[in-house]
Specification:
Chain lengths: 434, 434
């Protein structure tokens, strides 16, 4: 097929007519499909149903050090859960605190604590005239909403194939002491699906921030969420790397079992240097007596150890992989050579990131919606919901069934073509008028 | 036995010698008993072990509206859990949000939110020169630690048999707009065990606060935690009463199942007016995607309805009641008529509040500790850990076994006598010197 940019005006109009007819056919079908949510599918959730059987009324609900998990207490998590979660996070159990069911909630609390009490003795952010955050874009909307909620100014940092643009990060962080942090999803990133290169991680660990309370918010949400057995991404462990670089306190690391066991009924954790953990605990011990230890015990009894978790993640991959392959196959079939859309083909995580030509993303999402296919709102992957080029769309294939994905993505590509050609025709007309 | 105050100096010295000998005998026993913790005993926890059986891998884990509890979502709680918790809290399910495992954490978050974002559009407390809180004393140390953590000035309000001194509350609240809240445990209060009278609740609902963002923090932690079938305290429902009085937004109400099912693995909730809930949700939806719905479902399947909860609480009472009776019996046997100690005899809750003559509480706790009996630190029941009269001690009989309680309280009364008589002898000597 011819590139759109090489079409004559007549060819464009013909193509437009053809696409409009196809689009009408879709609208007659009254579809109702949802490609917007990064949620595991029911089949994935079924993998963890056995977690409901591992504890029972006859069971001793004490943890390895004899503490009764049913009662109050244990602020940092039970020993065996700390060990398992430390293995998932690739750190020492001493560097971990286990929290409640949501790593997002941990991150919110970390920002909140920094805002009202400051970081390790530094001025609380609420007492400063201005606080800024770096945001790798496209990125995770819920990160951006937290910093927006606290009135923190967000600065876009472009995502490159190797990770964030580190020249820009280094230059900004070293010169502006109002910059207190950067949001990162370093592995199988949301939504681009790529992982930070070794060099990027090493440059992160060697940042020389102007602000002594600058922290890297390292949300390793997809740390073991591979799609393939054979080709997997590997990420340098950031805590160790920061220590090696003489910046042991510069990073907070987050993870959860939300996309391992049950989202919302999993366990979430943070890892950091002992100095940071001490600072965190001064707040945490005022905030709560302890998190849900029975659920911690349940997870350990179900997964047993990191090998159990790895086997479990392979089963997730078997369900997820075909979904990603369907999306990629259809994108190739429909858009290859047209030069009107570009997308990532990740080896893990939950998303495919799609870029149209500039100025089309909002219209594509709207056009798909009118035909019954819900996509993540255009702009959602940028701070303040504003994609400066209006071209990024996050595709989330995890939840719908395979047949639904086929239909939805086929329609999506049609919308991409239709919106693009309309834009080109309008441009042609406006140029002709001049 | 003679009142200590009526003893001659010689009698005092004889009594002191006798007590010292008895105390030495205790020290030889090398006891190690703990009367400090308001924790349920293992026997109480056993009552909820069945909760581990109600869900299993074959079970449908959807809630009543068909939502899959295993997955992300549902910010306010699943419908059946809201209904059950609303029954426990005596409010409408629409007025409830179900949170995580800890009502303390909810309260912390409410104060934190008010501090960084303000209450329903009013100035965030972090932007005010001064914020004050009223604290009913003696009260719950963990409440006071939250307000202390946020640098909020705390003002003591004496607890009377009818509840807080309402003359003082009304006068302060109506004249000082820096006063933003009051900590209350209105039923079977911690540690005094009394409940607010109808008149007290009505006066609360009719407060005319100078600060529009003043809120009553109504921690109904012991709402159904009766010790007796026959004589129980009744508390007017505060949300309805505030609405009736034209102050619908003036109260936040808190509760949890921590002392109903498993502490730390229960569920916690807040109730408030719809206006307040909307304000709370604006923060909550940034903070988390949802709390643990599987655990909400587990609780509903185990308790079924409010009648199931009530029956369950009777079983708790059967275990707790004898413990309170042992404490009260020994206090009577040892201290009646001496006029050196006064204590509460609550109909519910977890504590007995003991008052010595002024200036003795710290020494009593220390003397007991030296003989191997750990008590709640003297002063813990007051803001900043400072009991101005140094006389209040919280006794927590729930956790130890009945035999242990007997020994611990017998020793405790000995320490009360010993410290009191030592104080009286010292006073006599110092007067003689003058």
């Amino acid at each position: 097929m011819k590139k759109y940019s090489e079409m004559s005006f007549e060819e464009m109009k013909l193509e437009h007519e053809k696409l409009e007819k196809l689009y009408k056919d879709y609208r007659y079908q009254a579809l109702s499909l949802d490609m917007s949510r990064g949620k595991p599918s029911p089949a994935q959730l079924d993998l963890s149903n056995g977690m409901m059987d591992v504890l029972n009324s006859q069971e001793d609900l004490s943890c390895s050090d004899g503490f009764d998990c049913r009662n109050y207490g244990v602020l940092n998590g039970i020993p065996e859960a700390k060990e398992l979660m430390a293995d998932i996070m690739e750190v020492n159990p001493d560097n971990i605190i286990i929290f409640g069911n949501s790593s997002l909630n941990i991150m919110f609390d970390f920002i909140s604590r920094s805002y009202h009490h400051g970081v390790m003795g530094h001025t609380p952010w609420c007492k400063l005239p201005k606080v800024k955050f770096l945001c790798v874009v496209p990125g995770y909307d819920r990160h951006f909403r937290i910093t927006e909620y606290f009135g923190i100014e967000m600065i876009n940092i472009p995502m490159l194939p190797t990770g964030p643009d580190m020249d820009m990060v280094e230059s900004l962080v070293s010169t502006d002491d109002a910059i207190k942090g950067i949001w990162c999803v370093p592995k199988y990133s949301n939504p681009t699906g790529n992982s930070y290169s070794d060099e990027t991680v090493r440059r992160f660990a060697r940042l020389k921030p102007a602000a002594p309370d600058f922290r890297i918010y390292w949300d390793n949400a997809y740390t073991i969420h591979h799609l393939y057995d054979d080709h997997q991404d590997h990420l340098i462990e950031i805590l160790a790397e920061c220590k090696r670089a003489g910046n042991p306190d510069m990073v907070y690391k987050f993870a959860s079992t939300s996309k391992i066991s049950f989202p919302g009924s999993g366990i979430a954790m943070a890892a950091a240097s002992l100095n940071n953990l001490e600072d965190i605990r001064r707040c945490l011990e005022v905030q709560t007596i302890g998190h849900d230890k029975v659920n911690q015990l349940r997870h350990v009894k179900f997964f047993k150890d990191i090998h159990g978790v790895s086997e479990h993640m392979e089963k997730h991959a078997e369900i997820l992989r075909p979904k990603f392959e369907i999306v990629e196959k259809i994108l190739h079939e429909e858009l290859d050579d047209l030069d009107i859309g570009w997308w990532t083909e990740p080896r893990g995580g939950y998303f495919i990131s799609f870029n149209s030509i500039p100025g089309c993303a909002k219209d594509i999402v709207l056009t798909a919606k009118k035909a019954g296919v819900k996509l993540t709102p255009a702009g959602a992957t940028f701070p303040y919901g504003i994609d400066p080029e209006d071209r990024n769309i996050r595709l989330a294939p995890s939840f719908p069934g395979n047949d639904e994905i086929s239909i939805a993505i086929r329609l999506f590509t049609l919308c991409v073509k239709l919106v693009t050609i309309e834009k080109m025709i309008a441009q042609h007309n406006s140029e002709a008028e001049q």
